[in-house]
Amino acid sequence: MSNRFVGKTGKPTKKAATTTSRTNQIPLELLNNNQLNSLISQSLPQNYNFELHKTIHQVNQNNVAILGLQMPEGLLQFSLIISDIINKFCPNCHQIIVLGDVTYGACCVDDYTAKALGCQMLIHYGHSCLIPVDQTSIKTLYVFVEIGIDRQHLADTIKANFPACMHQEQEEEKNRTIKHVSISHEEEQELHLALVGTVQFVSAVQALKHELEQPSSQSNQPKMITPSAPDTIQHHHHHHQPCRFKVTVPQVKPLSPGEILGCTAPKLSPEIDAILYLGDGRFHLESIMIANPTIPAFRYDPYEKKITHEGYDHAQMRAVRANAIEIARESLRAEREDSERGWAVVLGTLGRQGSLNVLKVEPPSILSSQG
């Protein structure tokens, strides 16, 4: 279990590093606490990892009296259960505050509000460490909330659909589900996939890379992608085009390998044949599609157990942006003729979305680009 709680930025000495390692190590009596383990298994989804053992250990280790919890809307339903469990096993924690503001992403970690409310520590759920813990105003623990999925179904789905779906036109159906086509037997070809996903599924991404790169015999090729929704899925015929997978798991630091955000995605090598995104929704996927407009993108939804070929209208996006830029340029030209007109630069205050450094740099940059 990895630790994402950091106290100091300075390089520790060997003695200090040993002490820190011992401090961060979760005691066996806590890991094996039957009452705690029973509460977790009975009260919370078994495929969600809220890392409560580590949380309780950190809260007790730092003698936290007032604790703040911050979650995206999808996890808020578990906030009171988690609060009760922490309160039960942290005798010195007298108050737990659940932040109610909407949390859109990793940049919304709201240590400022937590500190203003008197919290000594903040636990941020569901996002990666986009804001380093050595830059937050109070002790901060990031809990990724890894979600367990059917990894075998995921691997079988990819093997059954590739490379067949690479040669098929995108369907314009409401659910945009890929239908399989019969293809003639050909020599084994290599397919270079880039695997990405949200932070909840980075472990599954790594496991899929390992699975796909294992040699498999023709007889072991799966013949269908899912047992459900027969009206939207066509089965493969007995001859499945052999394929050897080469897998790349890209990384944009400080994100984890394979992790992407709506605002952060890697520029991929032209050698990549296709992008496979593991997650629900399109928000994060669109960032890597915008960054790599020539590479086809596919999405595997672990909840629906369905793979889809995703499209993006790059021409329209560029036209909309170009139009907005031209409107801005015209307003700057008009400002020269009318001194009462001007621009307002708005600093966002939702968590850490507002950047003072950007605020200091951008206004002069905008003014210097007039005309």
TrEMBL record:
UniProt keywords, alphabetically: 4Fe-4S, Iron, Iron-sulfur, Metal-binding, S-adenosyl-L-methionine, Transferase
Sequence segments annotated as region (Disordered): 1-20, 212-239
One biological process term in Gene Ontology: protein histidyl modification to diphthamide
Cofactor note: Binds 1 [4Fe-4S] cluster per subunit. The cluster is coordinated with 3 cysteines and an exchangeable S-adenosyl-L-methionine.
Pfam families: Diphthamide_syn
Gene3D superfamilies attached to this UniProt entry: Diphthamide synthesis DPH1/DPH2 domain 1, Diphthamide synthesis DPH1/DPH2 domain 2
InterPro entries, sorted: DPH1/DPH2, DPH1/DPH2_1, DPH1/DPH2_2, DPH1/DPH2_euk_archaea
Biased composition (Polar residues): 214-223
Catalytic activity, reaction form: L-histidyl-[translation elongation factor 2] + S-adenosyl-L-methionine = 2-[(3S)-amino-3-carboxypropyl]-L-histidyl-[translation elongation factor 2] + S-methyl-5'-thioadenosine + H(+)
Pathway(s) served: Protein modification; peptidyl-diphthamide biosynthesis
Role: Catalyzes the first step of diphthamide biosynthesis, a post-translational modification of histidine which occurs in elongation factor 2. DPH1 and DPH2 transfer a 3-amino-3-carboxypropyl (ACP) group from S-adenosyl-L-methionine (SAM) to a histidine residue, the reaction is assisted by a reduction system comprising DPH3 and a NADH-dependent reductase, predominantly CBR1.
Family label: Belongs to the DPH1/DPH2 family. DPH1 subfamily.
NCBIfam families the UniProt entry points to: diphth2_R
Protein's UniProt name: 2-(3-amino-3-carboxypropyl)histidine synthase subunit 1
Organism in which the protein naturally occurs: Puccinia sorghi
